[in-house]
Design brief:
The chain has about 475 residues and is an alpha/beta fold. Among the domains are: about 5-255, Alpha-Beta Complex (Amidase signature (AS) enzymes); about 305-375, no CATH class. It is about 40% helix and about 15% strand. The chain is built from 15 helices and eleven strands. The chain has helices at about 5-15, 20-40, 45-60, 105-110, 155-160, 175-185, 215-225, 270-285, 300-315, 335-345, 350-365, 370-390, 415-420, 425-430, 460-470, and strands at about 40-45, 70-75, 115-120, 165-170, 185-190, 210-215, 255-260, 290-295, 395-400, 435-445, 445-455. An eight-stranded mixed beta sheet has the order 4-6-5-10-11-9-7-8, with helices on both faces. Strand 7, helix 8 (about 270-285) and strand 8 (about 290-295) form a beta-alpha-beta unit. Helix 2 runs antiparallel to helix 3 (about 45-60). The N and C termini lie close together (about 10 Å). The structure holds glutamine.
């Protein structure tokens, strides 16, 4: 059962060939059996899930229920869940219980999805390896000595090991696509503003976007359809109709113009990974698409621009954790300043502190123009590069990451090497574009990801391309041996 995609499971449930309670029990057992190795979950909500599954079975029995009725599901632990703690992978929020659900959570609940728990992640979504979590690292189901990627490492590892058919995730600089690539699963980061950020704990507000990780593009389409849409409670959410992402999945790719991002093949790309990506491009050609090289000259500036903008915004967003209103409070504060200082020193980990300090520095008087304003200008140049490219091609493609998953501990001591992991993913966030990662083979036995980037609000086009590719290939159906 666990080998089936979310799409198949939803159909089985609706046809009453399996009950939600049976499914939830089966996945809970897999979660429990894997937790000591993978550490994909911060919190498992077994009791609540079983009660919800019973209700889903009643609804399905009466011919009612939403499109995801009874489907087991998980949330990255930065989506607020009423009554269930939301830690954001941090000691700061270790015991935080939100009084309300994030919009994404309430929408998926309304669609009938059953939450089995909250997924581990890098602290405040800052990281590329899931090693910054206060709750310990997540491990890669393909090889537990390797990282699953980050920051949505729990979501990606859980789907890869089939502990869940799908999970929410977020992407500020690559945190959906990079772990999806490392774990051999499918992930989509929608256009900035497509999915509500209400109740999604903020890291860098002009870049953060919620999305989904699942086994197949079809599965992600099915979930995104429920998640996406205008939310009056998020002022950056876009008031535009949500197309039916499932409706166009089968469309022919004949005549589709694909641009291959030259800069993504220039430096540091693992040769075996490159071969996987080139083979994937050949599949698209066989499907009738045309492929040609496109250059985006300002793309190499993405990482430096991002590591000014993201820390600047995080330093402002994380100012709210002051030990007063919510989150960790130090013991026996002497005075207000001592309360702030010790609560924040104790509550945040090293990477979060590094970002807050960098961000505070680049925003300070005298440096604002030199760093923050300059970075925003670079961001504009990158956005213009993309706009020019999308005047000529329908989609851009390239590798998701420069290498497959690396070993735990390999990059923790050197933040710059760690940051360079996001070299291919960050530009889509800076420009607010939708982007996906789709499994496209194995480089030295480890999953490789094909990245697909589209113009604003072209999610349906991305999903269509990814789905047609997945009908020709079975990389997305491969399951790590230990979990097969
Ligand atoms: N790895 C990047 C960072 O550390 C991106 C994280 C993310 O997308 N949340 O900031």
């Amino acid at each position: 059962m666990y080998r089936q995609t979310l799409t198949q499971l939803a159909a089985e449930l609706r046809a009453r060939r399996v009950s939600s309670v049976e499914l939830v029990r089966a996945f809970l057992a897999r979660i429990e059996a894997s937790q000591s190795t993978l550490n994909a979950f911060v919190t498992v909500t077994a009791e609540q899930a079983l009660a919800q599954a019973e209700a889903a079975d009643r609804a399905l029995g009466a011919g009612r229920g939403g499109p995801l009725e009874g489907v087991p599901f998980g949330h990255k632990d930065l989506f607020c869940t009423a009554g269930v703690r939301t830690t954001c992978g941090s000691r700061m929020l270790e015991n935080f219980i939100s009084p309300y659900d994030a919009t994404v959570v309430s929408r998926l609940k309304a669609a009938g999805a059953v939450m089995l728990g909250k997924l581990n992640m890098d602290e405040f979504a800052m990281g590329s390896s899931n090693e910054t979590s206060y709750f310990g690292p997540v491990r890669n189901p393909w090889n537990p000595a390797l990282v699953p990627g980050g920051s949505s490492g729990g979501s990606a590892a859980a789907v890869a090991a089939r502990l869940l058919p799908a999970a929410t995730a977020t992407d500020t600089g690559g945190s959906i696509r990079q772990p999806a690539a490392f774990c051999g699963v499918t992930g989509i980061k929608p256009t900035y503003g497509r999915v509500s950020r209400y109740g999604m704990i903020a890291f860098a507000s002009s870049l953060d976007q919620g999305g989904v990780i699942a086994a197949s593009a079809e599965d992600t389409a099915r979930v995104l359809r429920e998640m996406a849409g205008f939310d009056p409670r998020d002022s950056t959410s876009v008031d535009a109709p949500v197309p039916d992402y499932l409706a166009g999945l089968e469309q022919s790719l004949s005549g589709l113009k694909i641009g291959v991002l030259k800069e993504f093949f220039d430096t540091g790309l693992d040769p075996a990974y490159e071969r996987c990506v080139r083979e994937a491009l050949a599949v698209f050609e066989r499907l009738g698409a045309s492929v040609r090289e496109v250059s985006l000259p300002n793309i190499p500036l993405s990482v430096p621009a991002y590591y000014v903008v993201a820390p600047a915004e995080c330093s402002s967003n994380l100012a709210r954790y002051d030990g007063v209103r919510f989150g960790h409070r130090c013991a026996e504060a002497r005075d207000l300043e001592d309360l702030y200082k010790r609560s924040r020193s104790e509550g945040f980990g090293a990477e979060v502190k590094r970002r807050i300090m960098t961000g505070t520095y680049v925003l300070s008087a005298g440096y604002y123009d030199a760093y923050y304003l300059k970075a925003q200008r670079v961001r504009r140049l990158i956005t213009s590069d993309f706009a020019r490219a999308f005047g000529e091609v329908d989609l851009l493609m390239g590798p998701t990451t420069p290498t497959p998953a690396f070993e735990l501990g390999a990059k923790v001591a050197d933040p710059i090497t760690m940051y360079l992991n996001d070299i291919y993913t960050i530009s889509a966030n800076l420009a607010g574009l939708p982007a996906m990662s789709v499994p496209c083979g194995f480089a030295a036995g480890l999953p490789a990801g094909l990245q697909i980037i589209g113009p604003h609000f072209a999610e349906a086009r991305l999903l269509n391309a990814a789905h047609r590719y997945q009908r020709e290939t079975d990389w997305h159906l491969r399951i790590p041996e230990a979990y097969a």
